[in-house]
Amino acid sequence: MGAWLACMVTMAVAGRETASRIDAFQVMELRAIIGFLLLYPLVKRAGGFGAMKTRHPWRHLWRNAVHYAAQYAWLLAVTLIPLAQVISIEFTMPIWTALLAVMFIGERMNIWKIASIVLGLVGVWIIVRPSAGHIEPGQLISLAAAVGFAVSVVLVKALTRTDPVVRIIFWMLVIQGVIGVIPAWLVWQPVPLMLWPWIMLVAFVGTFSHFSMAQAMRYADATMVVPMDFLRVPLTAIAGWLIYSEGIDFYTVAGAALILAGNLLNLKRRAMGHA
User: Fold this and answer.
1) What is the 3-state secondary structure (H, E, C) of the chain?
2) Is the pLDDT of residue 230 over 80?
């Protein structure tokens, strides 16, 4: 999860830099193609393409169709509303993930997991402080992305019970690459030379963030792993301060403290055997 957090904070910056200059469909297609090349050494180490056969192709197809749509919505939202709002609205995802995990894959929800989620969401609310009664289209798009990511997380958790992580990521890149061929072709334009380092960064963190998340899912329940992702909010705020000179105010510090408290509570209760 530490590797996942590092990748996703980097993705927030790289995604803003790329999607603001070329269409998100093109960004996603380049990510899939380059990501496949980056993953190939792990595929070869795992036994080659023959070892990538799966008994659950439809699960992979469903998971990646949902994730592709959610990823596009996320990149679109980055260009419509402030980055802090996109990341914060995205953190409704643990609510949907927890509910879906309980409903469809038999995980248990207890008071400690609920408390960690509530504290995290309160912390996110304090950081964002949205204007009452005013909702931007980008906010709704970001919320749709959060629901899609939640469905994807639950499906990944189910897939880790039958398929190794490299196989899950392999099919993610293949399926999303195929899905994106026509949309990317319709909007394709030459990529400026100065943008290629950002494209490579998107491909790298976009591929290995999922590798890290899938590995984390092998060792813990989704309802325990996902609340740790709340730390991405204060980490993204720090990245914004360092890279874009965005200020960090009292509300950000207070919200981050609540997010951290929720995560520590969840981890402590699990260590005590109450997860």
Assistant:
1) CHHHHHHHHHHHHHHHHHHCCCCHHHHHHHHHHHHHHHHHHHHHHCCCHHHHCCCCHHHHHHHHHHHHHHHHHHHHHHCCCCHHHHHHHHCCHHHHHHHHHHHHCCCCCCHHHHHHHHHHHHHHHHHHCCCCCCCCHHHHHHHHHHHHHHHHHHHHHHHCCCCCHHHHHHHHHHHHHHHCHHHHHHHCCCCCHHHHHHHHHHHHHHHHHHHHHHHHHHHCCHHHHHHHHHHHHHHHHHHHHHHHCCCCCHHHHHHHHHHHHHHHHHHHHHHCCCC
2) no
